[in-house]
Specification:
- Chain A: Keywords: Phosphoprotein.
- Chain A: This is Stressosome protein rsbRA.
- The complex is a heterodimer of chains A (285) and B (137).
- Chain A has 285 residues and is of the alpha/beta class.
- Chain A has ten helices and five strands, in the order H-H-H-H-H-H-E-E-H-E-H-E-H-E-H.
- Chain A has two domains: 152 residues, Globin-like (Orthogonal Bundle); 111 residues, Transcription Regulator spoIIAA, CATH 3.30.750.24.
- A five-stranded mixed beta sheet of chain A has the order 1-2-3-4-5, sandwiched between helices.
- In chain A, helix 7 packs parallel to helix 8.
- Chain A is rod-shaped.
- In chain B, helix 3 links the parallel strand 4 and strand 5.
- Chain B is globular and about 35 Å long.
- The termini of chain B are far apart.
- The chains are: A alpha/beta (285), B alpha/beta (137).
- At the A-B interface, helix 7 and helix 8 of A face helix 3 of B.
């Protein structure tokens, strides 16, 4: 009895698949740009087959049991791929939920004479597909989180270059907001580079920092202090007018730190500290 | 009792910490160094901590204390060779060692000391312009 639906699905598989795919195609949110019809067809058929296999056992409630492993596997890999490809959660959920409608439609035709059986089968199928779609969404979100994590790591890696601009002079263009984690990375990179190049002067350019609040300022001061402990002097450059205003309004004390308006001015200072001077080459006669 | 050797080098005292410090050793060093400054009438003290890989708040304070004490006794103190990890730790502990001169290595530290002493001894106008590493505070 329990596998009544399974029998019908087996018998009318083609019809279910067609109805399902039609449902998906009719959905206005379908992203035809991200996936071809053929791919959609393949994915749908694969899922329907393994779904059929799973409900043949008569188990409609426990999706953690062995029969559902293939189904969950397909759904997981599908949601992760979709998450990476940039599908929205709605589109991914619709994929599973539209199957419900297709099955219900077919069941209605097949079991029209037995209303009681029809209702109980529909309820079971509906519960089952709901839990399947929840697990699909979970996998989808996990996939998205992976993407975000990877991007965060990448940003951290690429955004903290330490540049040796001249003998004994390092420049550190800081782009983006400074949180404690990034400060840590920046500090470590800077200090290591000071040792490697035995530099005396480090220029911290904050033109790429959108706002300077007390926390960011504190992180900056920490970096400057740490560099000073290593025997290197720090110059903070790239202070925009609005940042100067914020710093003073917040009452942040930057007096112990040398500041310059532009990187050029900071470089000039660094040169004169190193007893270097830049002169124009004489024009050739 | 363990002691850290203090070497006299002209007008300067040279201290090289080659082991990881513990509290007793740090206190002995503080005591010995102040006495040595007084005995030799040293003008500068150079502390090399390049071999120190672990510091705690106590060590940080001792280093700060030594520097302040020598300055009161008219000897400049330069701490050289601090490792990046140590510098980060001290800053995170809230001990930026304000008032202590620092340099990357012994060579640069010596140059800095010589400059400072030269400045104090006969205020050379030309050198005064290039007053290097004169951190505020």
């Amino acid at each position: 009895m329990a596998s009544k639906t399974s029998d019908i699905l087996n018998k009318r598989k083609k019809l279910v698949l067609e109805t399902w795919i039609n449902n998906q195609l009719q959905d206005p949110t379908l992203r035809e740009d991200l996936m071809t019809n053929q791919e959609l067809h393949g994915q749908s058929e694969e899922l329907l087959d393994s779904f059929n296999q799973a409900i043949r056992s008569g188990n409609y409630t426990d999706i953690d049991s062995q029969e559902y492993y293939p189904v969950l596997d397909i759904l997981n890999s599908l949601s992760v791929t979709r998450a990476h490809a940039g599908f929205s959660p709605r589109e991914t959920a619709t994929f599973v939920l539209s199957l419900k409608r297709a099955i219900v439609e077919v069941l209605q035709q097949e079991l029209a004479q037995d209303q009681a059986l029809l209702i109980s089968e529909i309820l079971k199928i509906s519960d089952l597909l709901d839990s399947l779609s929840i697990s699909t969404l979970e996998a989808f979100i996990k996939g998205r989180e992976e993407v975000i994590l990877r991007q965060t790591n990448e940003i951290n890696e690429i955004s903290t270059p330490v540049i040796r601009v001249w003998e004994g002079i390092l420049a550190l263009p800081i782009i983006g907001t400074l949180d404690s984690e990034r400060t840590q990375i920046i500090m470590e990179n800077l200090l290591q580079e000071i040792v490697n190049t035995s530099s005396n002067i480090a220029i911290l350019d904050i033109s790429g920092v959108p706002t300077v609040d007390t926390l960011v300022a504190q992180h900056l001061i920490k970096t400057v202090s740490a560099a000073r402990l290593m025997g290197a002097e720090c110059i903070i450059s790239g202070i925009r007018p609005e940042i100067a205003q914020t710093i003073v309004h917040l009452g942040i004390d930057l007096l112990g730190v040398q500041t310059k308006a532009s990187l050029a001015a900071a470089l000039q200072t660094a040169f004169s500290r190193q007893q270097l001077s830049v002169v124009k080459a004489k024009a050739k006669p | 009792m363990d002691r850290i050797p203090i070497l006299k080098f002209g007008h300067f005292l040279l201290v090289t910490i080659q082991v990881d410090m513990y509290d007793r050793l740090a206190l002995n060093l503080e005591n010995d160094l102040v006495n040595a400054v007084s005995k030799h009438e040293a003008r500068g003290v150079l502390i090399d901590i390049s071999a120190v890989s672990i510091v705690d708040s106590f060590m940080g304070r001792i280093i700060g204390n030594i520097a302040t004490m020598s300055r009161i006794m008219d000897a400049e103190t330069v701490v050289v060779g601090m490792q990046p990890a140590v510098a980060i730790t001290l800053v995170e502990l809230g001990l930026p060692l304000a008032g202590v001169h620092t340099a990357l290595n012994v060579e640069k530290g010596m140059a800095l000391l010589q400059e400072k002493i030269g400045l104090n001894a006969h205020s050379d106008a030309a050198r005064a312009e290039e007053d290097d590493d004169d951190q505020p505070e």
